[in-house]
Each structure stands twice: as C-alpha cells, then as structure tokens.
C-alpha cells in the first residue's frame, strides 16, 4: 500500500470539494476501500473520510417513503424490527451479504458502490483486465475461468459481475439515490446509477468526481410486505451469490396485481427481470407460473462456458423466491 494523504471531512460540502481533486477517493466504513488498497487495485493519493458526517446516518420508514442514510450501517438496518416487518427482502439482502463483523462496519452507501469480485480484477498479477487497466484485454474472455462472471450485460471488453446483494432489492423496488457534489445535489434512479461495461468497463457509475451518495430512498409499495431475498452460494455464510433474487408480491385474491424481481450474482450491473414480472401480472401465482417466470427471467442470458450453470440455477432461485414471498401473505 502506497502512502496517501488523509482528511477527515467536517462538512458535506468540504468532503465533496476535497474528493473532487485528482487522485482522491472517499472512505467511510472502509470495508471495500481498504481491502482494494491492500491488494494494490486502488492506489489513491488522498482519502477523504466522511464517517463523521452525522447527517448521512440513520434510516426512516415513513408512510410513503423509506429513507436510508448513506452512512447507515448494514447491521443496524438489517436488524431493525420495523424494517423486518415492513420490507423483509431489504433486511435479508443485508443480513446475507457479509459476516457480522463486516455488517457492523460497512455502510449502505459503500455497499452499493462495491467493486467486482472478478479474480482477474482483484489479482494484479494478471495484466489483462480492462476494468483495472483499460485497453489491456480481458483474461476471462481470453480462455480464463468464468464461473463467477456475468451472463447479462457483459461486453467484448468485460464480463465482470456486479457482486452486491442489497442492489438486487433496490433495483426491483424503484429506489433512487441522492447525491451531493461540487456542483450541488441531484437524484439518480438506482437503475441508472451503474453503467454497463461496453467499451469502457473502468467507468462503473454515473457519479462525477467528488460526488457523494448521501441517501437511498424507496417509495413504499404493498409488494414490500410480501417480499423475500433468496441467495444461492457455495457456502451458507459470507459468500457472494452464484445467483440471487429479490422479489415482492401484491395479490388480488389469487391474481398477481404487482410483482418485483431483481437479480443478483448474474449481471454486470444490478438487473431487473421485467419480462418475468410482465409474465406474472394478472395471472395466478402457482409453482408452474413461478417456474415459467424463472425461465423467462433467464431466457436472454448470454453465458460463457463456465457460467452457463447460472441459467438453471437462477431460474430455480427466482421460482423459489416467488413462492416464499407468496407464503408470507398466507398463500399456498
């Protein structure tokens, strides 16, 4: 790890200004940043610590909106009884994301901005990584191991997978992200925060230099109460998803009135399965229709040889999450 300058920001405006300098990075909980600095993937000249900005802490469940401060800790939100009752999938996507130690330290803002777990990105012994070293190539596409890679949203330059759990829930439930930068504030639809790799995989979000995520907001909808986050992984604790699904249901008798399906562990960016949602609205939810929705969710997947298993696995995960969500509203 190289030497760097350290600044503890006293205000949000000061943090945005300091972070806009060339070579500067933001740090809060540090669970991703410090990790990447240790392995030489990130080498900032300066770190701007925003962990003391109390206005970015806390979370609130209102009648119409849920507001999550960017500095709210994963464990605090995941363990809140009000969150568990109002929006189970939110709690589950946080609870299943990391070890207790990391959940106690990691912030929501940092979580949604975490970097890929692609081994070729994280191991600097591999020179071929367009995301880490633009223009160098992609070791995964050049005959490398691809079991952890994206089957949606990849390009000829990069097939790295976005690894976060929380993001699958946020993209399914129309979250927005509030930011503050040197130029002022703005609100970004969460579905537009991350960008597909295309020819520039080193650009991962639409955030400008110095722009800081301050909060995450979601409109309250009935489907939140009957929601579930299901995650398939190599081991039960602290492992990234091979495939996951965040779903929510609103039923009118036996008919699906509203359904939300977000996918994790399978795409280059947080991914919403809109075609699968459309297949269920206005129809009964049975094991057969749940499995068909799972099939539709992965119908357009473009796997590599090593990642082809994610199609069948992901379809099963979607079906299982839907049926579990239905059981939470007394359905059979």
Report a brief summary of the structure.
This protein has 332 residues and is of the alpha+beta class. It has 13 helices and twelve strands. Keywords: FAD, Flavoprotein.
- CATH structural architecture of the domain at 222-327: 2-Layer Sandwich
CATH class of the domain at 222-327: Alpha Beta
Helix proportion range: 25-40%
CATH superfamily of the domain at 222-327: CO dehydrogenase flavoprotein, C-terminal domain
Q: Would you tell me the overall average pLDDT?
A: 95
Radius of gyration: 20 Å
Written as H for each helix and E for each strand, in order along the chain, the element string is EHEHEEEHHHHHHHEEHEEEEEHHH
Q: What coarse outline follows from CA principal-axis ratios?
A: globular
**Strand count:** 12
| Structural class estimated from helices and strands | alpha+beta
Describe the 3D structure.
The structure is a single chain. This protein has 332 residues and is an alpha+beta fold. Among the domains are: 5-52, Uridine Diphospho-n-acetylenolpyruvylglucosamine Reductase, domain 2, CATH 3.30.43.10; 222-327, Enolase-like, domain 1, CATH 3.30.390. 29% of the residues lie in helices and 20% in strands. It is built from 13 helices and twelve strands. The strands form three sheets. The chain has a five-stranded antiparallel β-sheet with strand order 4-5-8-6-7. A four-stranded antiparallel β-sheet has the order 9-10-11-12. Strand 2 (24-27), helix 2 (33-38) and strand 3 form a beta-alpha-beta unit. Helix 11 (274-280) runs antiparallel to helix 12 and helix 12 packs across helix 13. It is globular, with a radius of gyration of 20 Å. 48% of the residues are buried. The model has no long low-confidence stretch (mean pLDDT 95).
